Structures are given as structure tokens and as C-alpha cells.
Records
---
Amino acid sequence: MFDVAIIGGGFAGTLTAVHLLRAGITNLALIERRPPVGRGVAYGTHSEQHLLNTPAGEMSAFADDPNHFVEWLGDSWWAHFAPRRRYGDYVAAMLAAAPGGWRGFDDEAVGLLPEDGGYRVRLRGGTIVRARRVVLAIGQFPPAPLKPMAGLEERPWYVDDPWSEAAVAPLPPGGQALLVGTGLSAVDVAISLLDDAGAGHVVMASRNGRLPMPQLTTAPYKDWFHPDTAPLRLSQLLRQFRAEVKRSGLDARAVLDAMRPHVPAIWQRLPWVERRRFLRHLRSRWEAVRNRLPQPTAARLAELRVGGFITIMAGRVASLADAPGGALVTLGDGRELAVARVINCTGPDMAYRRINHPLILDVVGTGLGRWEPLGLGLDVDEDYRLIDDDGATTPGLYAVGAPTKGRFWEVNGVAELRLHTRDLAARIKADL
Ligand SMILES: Cc1cc2nc3c(=O)[nH]c(=O)nc-3n(C[C@H](O)[C@H](O)[C@H](O)COP(=O)(O)OP(=O)(O)OC[C@H]3O[C@@H](n4cnc5c(N)ncnc54)[C@H](O)[C@@H]3O)c2cc1C
């Protein structure tokens, strides 16, 4: 029996493994359905054009060693946006350098049941992995299905996963593509289609047509926000934030960055009604400011827009229909577009309830875990332990990263995940 089985070998699973190995817990299983480990969705891209959205100097995997990534990559990268592929190499190298052995399983976990004071993880290929403790580090899931057309998934011109090779596969020369979404992934896909896949024109459409803001180059702002005394109403928080932006005379992004380390604390203090209000009214604006475009990507996007190769549209997609060579798209305002490909870039689906994955269904179906009340992953306590059907913590079953978004809100960026993985590993060590 393993001491710990980690399901998911993206950044969160791999860094949890690194911390456990460094803490002497080496009887470890790491299960990843899309090997190699260390990459996950973000750092598994093959494109050199897909850049980290934070300068290399801020991307250390270890909070207590802020220069770690730059020392690995080379000092000249300090203020630059490195290719995400290189970051995957870095994370994999950290695992290779960690002391002690671990065992990798290149397979998908499809079942989880309690057994003999631990757990029994069933893999798709039939292997059973037994472990005293289990960590769900399963990350983000591709976007929720688009509504306009039944049977969309079977259409050859439709791609439901913006991070798949299919999204950026060659198009007929000069072909047009529609990207539903205008966030970071949509920008990456648009640039890849135009620069590498032969596309002639890309339309990016989302309800508000809002693009992520570019990264800032200003010096960091002071630590101005105090979660313990912060107001617990969203409207007052917003007022406080705006007043601080005015007082600082700085760009709102700098003020927000200084607030970011406190976000998990304030999120957990906010009443449910305020969290719901945030999700309904502020989320898209927050994400446009919080998830920024690396400057080289922002510059390339601007060039392509000025050249007329990318059009950004605000509005919904009313209907999609088969047409010769692709699809005919009708937008909410009646405009029609003939496209060779439609790619769903609406952002990761956080509603685990909708994701019919057998592993998650097992966790919830057997009552080991339950849905997070706002539909943001699974319910966990502050020690990353799953909360069961009756509201009690489930011993020995943990989650980190995307499944814990409802509890901490900030769980996606390396800046937060390096803390969560460190704290989780310490928690598991104490528990063992
Ligand atoms: C396109 C993109 C770009 C990003 N760029 C940045 C950036 O520049 N800087 C930054 O700080 N953050 C960035 N992020 C945020 C990013 O999500 C985190 O930095 C981090 O990579 C998340 O890691 P994770 O392990 O939680 O999730 P993931 O990367 O999604 O990894 C989860 C892993 O679990 C595996 N898995 C899932 N289910 C199973 C199963 N049942 N059995 C076995 N394996 C399973 C998956 O195959 C996957 O490899 C980006 C995110 C995306 C999507």
C-alpha cells in the first residue's frame, strides 16, 4: 500500500509530490492520464508562442525561494515571459531532482472507494492502486458545452477543447475560424491559428467582447489591504478598492496585485449571498483584470487586430449550422459568418456537477465528498480535506487546485498553488 496516491500530475499534483518527497514521504504513487507529469494543461503546450502570463522572476515554484525558476532558466529571463513549455520542463526537473523514489502510473483514475483505512483507486486499464491517503489534483476541465446546436460534439468543424492539438491544427489556407470566448486561451488559439495554422481571419466573440488586460510593468504597490477589517459587502469592497486606486495614483492592476495574496482570506469571510453576487456580476471583470496577457502576446494581438486578421465581437452565438467546408454561424444581432472551425474557448468548466467523470461521480456517489455549494468544484475544509455528505471531513482524502476553488477562490495561478501545495504536503505529513 502506498502512503499517498496523487491523482493528476499537473503543476498541483507534481509540486505536492515534490514537497512530500522532500519531507521524506517517498512511498508515493503519481497517477497521470496524459503523461509526462509536470505539465498539465497549461505547460503541456508545444508552441513556443504560448507564454507564461507572469514574468519569469515571479514564477518560482517555491514561495521561500523566489529566484528558483530564474536560476534554473537563466538570469536574463528575469523580466521576460518564458514559453510555458519551458515551465513544464522546470516542474518535471523539480520532480526528477526530489529525493527518494515515487511510482508513476500513466493511466486515468476512474474509481475511488474506501478500503482498510485507506483508499482503493481504480485505473481505466484495470490496475488498482491502494493508498493510505489520496490527493485529487485533477485540475480544470475543458469548457462547458456550447448550447446553440444539438450534437455539436460530433461535428468535424467543432472543437470543444481549446487546449487540444485539434484546436490549432492546420486550416484550409485563408480559412476563417470562430472562437467563442475572448479570454487568455482564446488569444493563444487565435495567434496560433493565424501564425502557424494557415488561417486568414479569426473572429473572437463573447458576451461582452472583453479581452484580458496586458501585464503591468510598474513597481509593486504596498500591502494595503487588511482582510480582517475589510467590509463584508461587495459594494463596499469595490468602493474601498476604487478609493485606494485613486489614493495611490497607480493603475488599478497594481493595486489589485497587492490585494491578491489576501483574496482567499476575504473570499472565505464573505457571506454566501455576496459570493453569489460576485459570481453573477463581477467575475468576468475580475478575470479580465486578474488573468493578464503577457506583453509580447498583447503586442502580437494588437498587430493582428490592426492588420484586420482578428475581429473581436460582443454578442452571443445564436445558432450554428452545417455549411459547405464548415459551419454557418449566426450571431445574436443577426450577422452571419461562414467559418471552417468553431472552437469553444469559454473558459474551464468549474461545475464538477456537470462533468460526468466516473472518478468524481464515485467520490460524490459514495458520499466521500459533496458538491461545493456555489458549483465551484468539491467542498473542502481549510486543510484541503474533502467534506462528506453529512458535513464531516473525510479522513485521508484531499484536494488541491481547481477542485478547491469554492473554498479559496484563488487556486489557479502558480503564485497561489505553490502555497497550497506546500501547506497540503505539510498537512499530509502531520496526518501520516
Ligand atoms: C492555458 C493556460 C495557461 C496558463 N498559464 C499560466 C501562467 O502563465 N502562469 C500561472 O501562474 N498560471 C497559469 N495558468 C493556470 C494553471 O492552471 C496553473 O498554473 C496550474 O498549471 C494548474 O495546475 P493543476 O495541476 O491544478 O491543473 P492541470 O494543469 O489541469 O493538471 C491536472 C492534471 O490532472 C490530470 N488528470 C485529471 N483527471 C485525472 C484522472 N482522473 N486520472 C489521472 N490524471 C488526471 C490531467 O491530465 C492534468 O495533467 C494557466 C492555465 C491555463 C489553462
Note: The domain at 152-213+292-344 is CATH 3.50.50.60 (FAD/NAD(P)-binding domain).
---
Amino acid sequence: MIIGVPREIKEAEARVAMPPSGVETLVAEGHEVIVEAGAGLGSGFTDEEFAQVGAQITPSAEAVWRQGEMIVKVKEPLPQEWPYISPGQVIFTYFHFAASEELTLGVLKTGCVAITYETVTRDNGELPLLIPMSEVAGRMAVQEGAKYLEARMGGRGVLLGGVPGVLPGEVVILGGGVVGTNAAKMAAGLGASVTILDIDLERLRYLDDVMPKNVHTLKSNPRNIRDSIARADLLIGAVLIPGAKAPRLVTREMLKLMKPRSVVVDVSVDQGGCIETIRPTTHTDPIYVVDDVVHYGVANMPGAVPLTSTLALTNATMPYVSQIAARGYRQAAMDNREILTGINMVDGKVTWDGVAEAFGLPFTPIEEALGL
Ligand SMILES: NC(=O)c1ccc[n+]([C@@H]2O[C@H](COP(=O)([O-])OP(=O)(O)OC[C@H]3O[C@@H](n4cnc5c(N)ncnc54)[C@H](O)[C@@H]3O)[C@@H](O)[C@H]2O)c1
């Protein structure tokens, strides 16, 4: 199969959908890979590195799109890329269709096969292509929080690990899923005193078993949240209710309980946030202050560390790319349900009910669309 890897053109997106190691694997498997010139630069990969492992490099985005039987990307195609898409062409990327009617209708019209990273689902409900970005964001949340706790950055001037004779900082994490667990590991490693709140007791039992002694678990309820945030130097929002907006666990009223110049990093801001006063911010202007509490609300945290994020994402995506390339999307989807669950559109039909529902479009079950 011919696989195309365009340069990402969305603002501030420095990741690339395939590192040279991925190209090397696909070429060894007998495929052709066309990479747009400069596609890897933001993640530290030069055109020469791609060429050395067998990629064809072209300066033309259009050539990559037109020649690729499958296009592998990171972010959704932007309107200027839609004219390059052809019917039946496979596009494998984060689409997040439900967030944009314009994107949904624009891509639907092309008749392509849209396989989305975000809906690839394991039998146990896990989303294997969202996990790596949650791991990155969870770990980054503590790094960013520690930075904004420094006095010159506007914070309380607390060192999370403390020192001999001085108590460590208090980190409170709302939600003990992938983001929360990764944040807890980082905060614990720095020596902070960490509390994770979750509504899922089984999850808290598991965390209590595997986490070091400086991590405590607590049932999430309004009273425990109020008590915990009053002690927090750093509060991390990491809750998720799948398919829904994040629940508002910390109201504006409750924010007044927090210590002056404490820091809130609400990672769940991309789902609306679990702290009422959070709003989305950007890497160039990441923080603002409400009621003397520093708020960090960057919605695409992994974008700050593209080298790590590219490798983390592609570790997870490449096995699917190999399967689709080897067997074609239809056979690959029949052989692997996870690929089937990734298909949101085929032949101008919407095959993911959440997308159809969001915009009142007809829904065709994927099995029917593929004639399975
Ligand atoms: N800002 C970013 O750059 C970025 C990057 C990756 C992920 N995220 C977001 O981070 C959030 C968390 O993602 P995740 O992968 O950790 O999800 P996850 O499903 O692994 O974990 C969510 C946890 O929240 C818990 N929860 C639900 N309701 C709760 C409540 N009322 N109180 C306490 N806990 C509650 C669940 O039991 C679960 O353990 C999501 O909104 C995700 O989209 C943001």
C-alpha cells in the first residue's frame, strides 16, 4: 500500500503521525511511504532521517494526499486539505467529528474512509489511542503545576518536595484514571503529599495497592472535595465521564476555600473542566488568576512536548497502521474489532452514532455499511 504522511498544518501542532522507525517498519513490510518535506521537524526528525529508512520525501502536500491510498495524520484535515481527499481513501487520525459540524459535513462529502483514533475501542471499553496523550498530560500537569507554584510565576512559592525540616507541598487530584494516576506518580516522585479522589472504589483500592506511601486515596464527594482543596497547594482536575461534559466538582464559591496563590491545573478542560472557573488557554498564554488562585487550562498539553508525544502516540497507532496497510481497511476491520470501532465514515455514510446524533445525520451501522 502507498501510505502518505502530510505535514501537520493546524496552528501550534508540532507532532508528526509517523517517526522514522515507523517508516522503517512499513517499508520492511513491503509498503511505500511518502512523507511531506519538513513533516517531522517539530518533533526533531529531519527529512534525511526519513529518507535513510526508505521514505520518499516530497515538498508538495498535494502529492502526498493524492498518492497516498492511506493518509496517516495527527489532527483532523483542515478545509484547505479537503479537496485533496478522494473517495475510498483511508484517513487515520484524530478527527473529533462531534466537535464540528463543518468538519463532519466537509469530510463526509469526500466519500473517504475516516478511521478516528479517538473511537478505537477495546472490548473492555479502553480507548488505546487516547491513553498515551492522557499519560503525557497527567505527567505534565505536575511539572506545570510545580512551575507555577514558584513565586516569580505568581504561585505560593512552595517546593512540592519540601526539604528536611520543612513539610512537602500538598497535591490534590480529582479523578484517578489515566491522567490522575500519571499525575500522582510524578507528584509522589517529587516527594509531595498526594491525595487522589475518585468515585470508583475499586479504582481507589487498586491505587492504594500500587502507589507509594505518600499517595492517599479518598472517596470523591462534595465534603471531601471541600476539605481537600482547602489544604491543596496544587489542585489537578482529571475527571472524565465518557461521552459527557466533565462534572463541575469545584464551584466558584468553593474556590474561596483555597490558599492564596495556590495553583489549579484542570486537565479535563477539554471536556469543559471540573473546576467552574477554568477556561481553555494556550501554551503561549497558559495561565490567569481568579480569586487569587492561579489557573492553568491548556487544552492540548501534549503539544508542548512534541518529541515525547509523537513517540507515545505512534507507539500506539503504528500496529493499527501496519494491519490496515497489510490487509486493506475492510479486512483489517473484520479481523480486528478495534479497527472496526474506529471507522466513523465510509462511502459518504456516518457509521458512528455519536456523530450522526450530534448533527441529526442518518446513521448507518458499520457492519451494514461494509456489508458484513
Ligand atoms: N488538556 C489536555 O491536554 C488533555 C490531554 C489528555 C486528556 N485530557 C482529558 O483529561 C480528562 C481525564 O482523562 P483520563 O484519560 O484520565 O480519563 P479516565 O477515564 O481514565 O479517568 C477519569 C476518572 O474520573 C473519575 N471520575 C468520574 N467522576 C468523578 C467524580 N465525580 N469525582 C472524582 N472522580 C471522578 C472516573 O472514575 C475515572 O477514574 C479527560 O477529560 C480527557 O479528555 C486532557
Note: The chain is about 35% helix and 15% strand.
